[in-house]
From TrEMBL:
InterPro entries: Frm2/Hbn1, Nitroreductase, Nitroreductase-like. Residues 10-179 form the Nitroreductase domain. It holds the Pfam family Nitroreductase. Coiled coil: none annotated. This is Nitroreductase family protein.
Length: 201
């Protein structure tokens, strides 16, 4: 069997130590990310995934928003560690905000032709999110970049929507950082197959 995709999947890891030593031009990265998301599958081809791609001061502003939100929630004696973590995300080359357009999800849930499945539409939109995030992550890794994904929603939702003037129907699902790999990931452990798989032949 061909294993090119599997090899890429094995290489995909969470990289926390990211930098800005990226040789790919921003417009080229932008078009690549858009194309990957465009070709990601979704139930009924509903295409509920939205993305905001941030570079330079816009990327830094995102992490300023996160830092401000967490400063109000984290105890002062623990905030120094939190601030250092946020700074490491700010040091990345760029970030991608992944959203689900709830207007799309609701339109499919309200579709009489799909009445049998109406309660599954949100779950299926989450599948589309996972597909898109995994595809972009793996694609960026293939091009020599490191990636990590964070989840600071809903703490930052209103501030992010206001800062980047986003539609009210866009629900934030994840924040993806990318940049040069300054330190590789550690080894990864896997659970036993007999706890995870069942095969009937």
């Amino acid at each position: 069997m061909d294993t090119q995709l599997l090899d890429l999947m094995k290489h995909r890891r969470t990289i926390y130590n990211l930098g800005r030593n990226v040789q790919i031009p921003e417009p080229e990265l932008t078009e690549y990310i858009k194309a990957v998301i465009r070709h990601t599958p979704s139930a009924f081809n509903s295409q509920p995934v939205r993305a905001v791609i941030l570079f330079n001061e816009h990327h830094e502003k995102l992490w300023d928003i996160v830092e401000t939100a967490l400063e109000e929630k984290v105890a002062p004696d623990a905030f120094l560690r939190t601030k250092a973590k946020i700074s490491s995300f700010r040091n990345a080359f760029g970030s991608i905000l992944f959203f689900t357009d709830m207007k799309v999800v609701q339109s499919y849930a309200d579709n009489e032709k799909l009445a049998t499945y109406q309660y599954q539409e949100y779950n299926w939109s989450e599948e589309a999110q996972g597909n898109a995030q995994f595809a972009v992550w793996t694609g960026l890794e293939e091009n020599g970049l490191g990636v990590n994904i964070q989840h600071y929603d809903p703490l930052i939702n209103s501030a992010v929507a206001a800062e980047f003037k986003l539609p009210a129907s866009w629900q934030l699902r994840a924040e993806m950082n990318f940049g040069s790999v300054e330190k590789p990931a550690a080894d990864k452990d896997f659970m036993d197959d007999d706890q995870r798989f069942k095969v009937f032949q």
